[in-house]
UniProtKB/TrEMBL annotation:
Function per UniProt: Cytochrome c oxidase is the component of the respiratory chain that catalyzes the reduction of oxygen to water. Subunits 1-3 form the functional core of the enzyme complex. CO I is the catalytic subunit of the enzyme. Electrons originating in cytochrome c are transferred via the copper A center of subunit 2 and heme A of subunit 1 to the bimetallic center formed by heme A3 and copper B.
Descriptive protein name: Cytochrome c oxidase subunit 1
Enzyme Commission code: 7.1.1.9
Biased composition (Basic and acidic residues): 14-23
Protein species of origin: Acidovorax ebreus (strain TPSY)
Gene Ontology annotations for the cellular component aspect, listed alphabetically: plasma membrane; respiratory chain complex IV
Domain Cytochrome oxidase subunit I profile positions: 22-536
GO MF, one annotated term: metal ion binding
Enzyme class: translocase
Subcellular location: Cell membrane; Membrane
């Protein structure tokens, strides 16, 4: 501990290069009892990729059923179970843990910390997710099948589900506890363990976005816990929170859920904004345009996210005054988001840009996320939303934000940082195949859904009239292609790097990349910054 506290350590405080030699356990113990932030980050990323594959299989079953009109593959009840579990697994099993994995790996490296603040709690918050994931996936094999109430778990449907609903509620509680512990860890690490000279306003944007995200998680996860606990007591203990027969109100559930659910949407995109804010300057060879405005924009998105929840509920019979308030609040939150888009564009403007794979994903992210943002702005208009509510237009909108938003940013981060993790440079050709294959198949899958929604095709239906057949067939083919591209990514990009096959990565693979993470060798040694680094005036380089 004294090494961590000693600010006057060796000249420059460079990371000790222990190579693979370290003081922790080896073999399976290294992973089961992992307390090193890098190992835990790796575990999170592998877990989330596994869940992405499981959720993807469910999505492909949904698209197989919708390939043509009529019932081909599954019955309507199983179809609803698939849509419900696809949503839950992707949101709570794939996207959120992946961002926590990136946070675990990169935040200590970016701020010059020796590790995360609470190493054992870090281990615990990861392993909590395994039983939760098993419970979610195994619910398909329970009497009555998996929950089929939509990922939003709306009452009164949830009050009528079989025993798998209780298992699902328990799994959500455990995942929530894991999120809260991870967030506390990130906040304490960032506020207490920055290297001397690393002020808050000199922190990398990825650390900033995660700091704000962690506060959001601590604020809203208990709200979700409250909503699903009330559902549980309605199911088993005779309360009537959401049961109209006993004086309850199912619409109250929607208010509570979306008070959690809307900040949750930003929890899944703010770390992505942080990643893009790291990658774009590196490949534009310029400083990030408007750093301070990015920090303030991120903070204002977080604050405003608490006052827009009922834009998911324009069709619930809300008074016109309420509709107006939520409509204008939602339009307002698009302003700080637009600030970010303009800042990234201004960063690229007249920069000497090159398009290595991380930059391709970042530019792809900006393009498709902007489309998702515009459709969100359209859905914010109460009169339009009342027409488009629960149609495929909404499905198109949030997949543009979550797949093309969160997932594309994660791929950008993987290609950007993985040389530092593995010590191996990925194959640029394979990275570009993965990018273009994913971008094209993604748009083939989800762009037609805008037209389906405008034509009136409802969500969560296993069958549909003939006039929707062509666009649905197109979307199903695209979805299969998109899924295969992610399998390609794992087999031909990730696995070779994990096995150490490929060109050795230099310490700084990207010439214009800034930040402390590029001051340690590649692959990053097991122990870094045991003596806090001394920073230059910009807090991006070690003096010594």
């Amino acid at each position: 501990m004294s090494a961590v506290l000693d600010n006057h350590g060796h000249a420059g405080g460079h990371a000790h290069d222990h190579g693979d030699h370290h003081h922790g356990p080896t073999g399976w113990r290294r992973w089961v009892f992992a307390t090193n932030h890098k190992d835990i980050g790796t575990l999170y990323l592998l877990f989330s990729f596994t869940m992405l594959m499981i959720g993807g299989v469910l999505a492909l079953l949904i698209r197989a059923e919708l390939f043509q009109p009529g019932l081909q593959v599954v019955n309507p009840e199983l179809f609803n179970q698939l849509t419900t579990m696809h949503g839950l697994i992707m949101v709570f099993g794939a996207i959120m843990p992946a961002f926590v994995g990136f946070a675990n790996w990169m935040i200590p490296l970016q701020i010059g910390a020796s590790d995360m603040a609470f190493a054992r709690m870090n281990n615990f918050s990861f392993w909590l997710m395994i039983p939760a994931a098993i419970m979610l996936v195994s619910s398909f094999f329970m009497p009555g099948g998996a929950p089929a109430a939509g990922w939003t778990l709306y009452a009164p449907l949830t009050l009528q589900m079989g025993p798998s609903m209780d298992v699902g509620i328990f799994a959500m509680h455990i995942l929530g506890a894991s999120s809260i512990m991870g967030s506390i860890n990130i906040i304490v690490t960032i506020l207490n363990m920055r290297a001397p000279g690393m002020t808050l306003m000199k922190m990398p944007m990825f650390a900033w976005t995660w700091l704000i995200t962690a506060y959001l998680l601590i604020a809203v996860m208990p709200v979700l816990a409250g909503a699903i606990t009330m559902t549980l007591t309605d199911r088993h203990f005779g309360t009537s929170f959401f049961n109209p027969a006993g004086g309850g109100d199912p619409v109250m559930y929607q208010h509570i859920f979306w008070f959690f659910g809307h900040p949750e949407v930003y929890i899944m995109i703010l770390p992505a904004f942080g990643i893009i804010s790291q990658v774009v300057p590196a490949f534009s060879r310029k400083k990030l345009f408007g750093y301070a405005s990015m920090v303030y924009a991120t903070s204002s998105i977080a604050i405003l996210s608490f006052i827009v929840w009922a834009h998911h509920m324009f069709t619930t019979g809300m008074p016109v005054t309420g509709q107006l308030f939520f409509m204008y609040a939602t339009m307002l939150i698009s302003v700080p988001t637009a600030v970010k888009i303009f800042n990234w564009t201004a960063t690229m403007w007249r920069g000497s840009m090159t398009f290595e794979t991380p930059m391709l994903w970042a530019v792809g992210f900006i393009f498709v996320f902007t489309i998702g943002g515009f459709t969100g702005l359209i859905l914010a208009m109460a009169p339009i939303d009342i027409q488009l509510q629960d149609t495929y237009y909404v499905v198109a909108h949030f997949h543009y934000v979550l797949v093309a938003g969160s997932l594309f940013a994660m791929f950008s981060a993987y290609y950007y940082w993985s040389p530092k993790w593995t010590g191996i440079m990925y194959s640029e050709t394979r990275g570009k195949i993965h990018f273009w294959g994913s971008l094209i198949t993604f748009n083939i899958t989800f762009f037609p859904m805008h037209f389906l929604g405008l034509a009136g095709m409802p969500r969560r239906y296993a069958d549909y009239p003939m006039q929707f057949a062509d666009f649905n067939a197109l979307a199903s083919v695209g979805a299969l292609g998109f899924g295969l591209m992610q399998v390609y990514f794992f087999l031909f990009v990730v696995l070779p790097a994990m096995r150490g096959r490929g060109v050795k990565a230099p310490q700084k693979p990207w010439e214009a990349a800034e930040g402390l993470e590029w001051e340690v060798p590649s692959p990053a040694p097991f122990h870094t910054f045991e003596v806090p680094p001394k920073l230059d005036a910009t807090a991006t380089r070690v003096i010594g």
